[in-house]
Amino acid sequence: MAKRKRKKTAMPRWSVVALAVLVAIAALWFMRAHLPAFRLPAMTGASRGVLAIDASPVNAANDGRRVRVTGLLTASAPAQDAQLGMRAGDAVLLRNVEMYQWREHCAGAACSYDTGWGAPVDSRKFRDPKGHESPQAPFASTAFAAPGLKLGAFGVDAALLVAQHAPHDYPVTDAGLAPNMAASFSAHGGALYAGGDPAHPHVGMLRVSYRVVPLGAATLEGVQHDGKLLPR
Predict the structure, then answer these.
(1) Which of 40, 87, 201, 208 could potentially form a cystine with 80 if both were Cys, beta carbons 3.0 to 4.6 Å apart?
(2) Whole-structure pTM value
(3) Is residue 57 reached through a cis peptide bond, with omega within 30 degrees of 0 on the bond before it?
């Protein structure tokens, strides 16, 4: 009697797919382990949905899109702190106000108090304000943007600029003070002091320092809207 030929069983489709995946993973592991030059592609701005565009002209078709613009940052006039009469030929002038004051340190139910420099706090809110009173600061820390800020043809939001370009110190001198402020403030170590001798501070003294974001070549990433670059 003739023997029947056994039928070959075809490999299931899922097995083929699984085998292909395993081969691909093994190949990827081999390349990463044995070929130092092999690297996965880095995430680029385009892959994150950020469109790199020219600083001029403004293309209205990009409104609402997140864009990256490189160009020359300019202004129509210096940045100015009109209250203290300080000005700088930069994009943004940042005023930092500190007071020599009482400070509260609480851990659970126990609080201790000392004096030192810091951003003004309201001592009336201390758990034990009696005997730890500090005066209210006459003005606060803030930022002053130069008028007419432009990056190429784009208007620029000052908050966006400060968030993406680290400000640097801007030492001040007595010569930079407005005449009406010179009677109250004096410059020491690049900062302005009012209310006493910086070498022997007491509660209520003020210290004002400045930082700036310069004009010039810059790159900003933001949302384009009506010819401006905005944070969102």
Answers:
(1) 87
(2) 0.75
(3) yes
Torsion on CA atoms 67, 69, 75, 76, rounded to nearest 10: -80
pLDDT at position 127: 96
Query: Largest Cα–Cα distance of the chain, in whole Å?
Result: 124
**Sequence-ordered strand ranges (E) for 32-159:** 51-53, 66-74, 79-81, 86-88, 92-107, 110-118, 142-145, 150-151, 154-156
d(CA 150, CA 152): 6
Q: What angle do CA 133, 142, 85 make, to 5 degrees?
A: 95
Amino acid at site 145: A
The pLDDT score that the predictor gives to residue 11 is: 52
Collapse the DSSP code of 225 into the 3-class scheme (helix H, G, I; strand E, B; otherwise coil) and give the result: strand
Which string of DSSP letters, residue by residue, matches 65-94? SEEEEEEEEE-SS-EEETTTTEEESSSEEE
Give the pLDDT score at 72.
97
Pick out the chain residues at pLDDT < 50: 1-5, 7-9, 14, 16-19, 21-23, 27-47
Question: Could you give the CA distance from residue 123 to residue 99 in angstroms, rounded to a whole number?
Answer: 12
d(CA 220, CA 86): 27
Q: Which two tokens stand for residue 67?
A: 């864009």
